[in-house]
Amino acid sequence: MKAFCPFHITGFFALKSDEKKVSSIGCGIVIADGAVTEVSAGLGSVYINGRQDPALTTKTVSALLSDKSADVRTELAGPMGCGLGTSGAGALSSALALNEFWGLKHSFNTLCDIAQWAEIKNNTGIGDVVAQALGGIVVREQNAVHQIPSPPLEISYVVFGPLPTPEILADRDKIAIINKFGSVALQRLLKRPTFNEFMRLSRQFACDTELISLKAQDAVEAVEANGGVASMAMLGDAVYAIDPANALNAFGKVRKTIIFNRGAYLIF
User: What is the model's pTM?
Assistant: First the structure.
């Protein structure tokens, strides 16, 4: 049994919490690159790109679903820890495939909740699964999730390396700064919900929070100087862009994909 889940690039975000749960608000884009997970009979091993991996988030998903065991093999179309939502994609595709393999008959919403909880528990992400369940340009408010209509625009991205997501999410001072500027960005986007405004606010957020690296900032400025728009993926040292002049080519291996207006699904 197989399932696919697209990647998600967060432009800006803020954390919200109450007595019942931790969640996030913000906006990001879902892209056609993603994770394919295959489940088969086994003792509970997890393989990422062909290699056995501790994969705590995936194992949490499995444990939350059932006390049964199965082997889980996930192939990722991009690097981990670089702001592409790979952990969320692996978690949700695993939840879909395991649910079908074990005949559990959980609803899609329940599986999304399980995948999201596994991410939160392991500090690998918070808002990716919500977007990956829907597709497109996804706006996450406190009590609502919706899309900004968009054609399947071509997105270019270049990855410089990972950022320590668990450490950043555990840093109270850094989170206070992220929350301040992420909340402002969301309010401004809601007044003008367009793709270009999303990109502008994402770039501003990356600079205001000082999360953007010098190399990423150089890449963003190069794209802008050549008529494109760009920003940094959260949380990863990577730049995504509408890059008509291919300015990102000067900064490393460029991947090209599209905005994917569909959420995760089973592969039959």
Answer: 0.94
Per residue in 131-178, pLDDT (tens digit) is 999 999 999 998 899 999 999 999 999 999 988 767 787 788 999 999
Cα–Cα distance between 175 and 177 in angstroms, integer? 5
Q: What does the alpha-carbon distance between residue 262 and residue 253 come to, in Å, rounded to a whole number?
A: 26
Cβ atoms of residues 179 and 205 within 8 Å: no
Tokens of 128: 């990716």
Give the DSSP letter string of the chain: -EEEEEEEEEEEEEEEE-SS-EEEEEEEEEEEEEEEEEEESSSS-EEETTEE---HHHHHHHHHH-S---EEEEEESS-TTSSS-HHHHHHHHHHHHHHHHHT----HHHHHHHHHHHHHHTTS-SSHHHHHTT-SEEEE-SS-EEEE-----EEEEEEEEE--HHHHHH-HHHHHHHHHHHHHHHHHHHHS--HHHHHHHHHHHHHHTT-S-HHHHHHHHHHHHTT-EEEE-BTEEEEEEE-TT-GGGGGSPEEEEEB-----EEE-
Contact 220, 191 (CB under 8 A): no
Judge whether 259 and 27 are in contact, CB under 8 Å.
no
Q: What is the tens place of the pLDDT at every residue in 204-219?
A: 999 999 999 999 999 9
Which of 93, 90, 85 is CA-nearest to residue 29?
85
Q: How many CB atoms lie within 10 A of CB 168?
A: 16
Domains located in the chain, CATH noted: 2-143+261-267 (3.30.230.10), 154-256 (3.30.70.890)
